[in-house]
Write a structure and sequence with these properties.
58% helix; 4 helices; mainly alpha
Length: 84
């Protein structure tokens, strides 16, 4: 083992205990939360997917659906229509 590396299991266990989810789940939740915020601000899905590190809007949509259980175009997930 490299003397500069940390054993991952204790770190992950401590993270799970403190945060209540794994580091990967936390990171995915954070990315989806940021993406949702940008989409609600009216940013194009192509731009949001790119900014959040997804390969395509479809990949973002799949990750969103896996994490939230609903489509990113579902109720409450799309920007409001501008008033005229």
């Amino acid at each position: 083992m490299n003397s500069n590396s940390w054993p991952i299991f204790p770190v992950q266990t401590g993270f799970n205990r403190t945060v209540g989810q794994s580091p990967v789940d936390y990171f995915v939740s954070w990315r989806i939360s940021l993406a949702q915020k940008l989409l609600r601000q009216g940013k194009p899905a192509v731009l949001v997917a790119e900014q959040m590190g997804y390969e395509s809007p479809s990949a973002l949509a799949r990750a969103f659906r896996r994490k939230t259980g609903v489509s990113r175009k579902g109720p409450g997930n799309t920007p409001s229509e501008p008033e005229q």
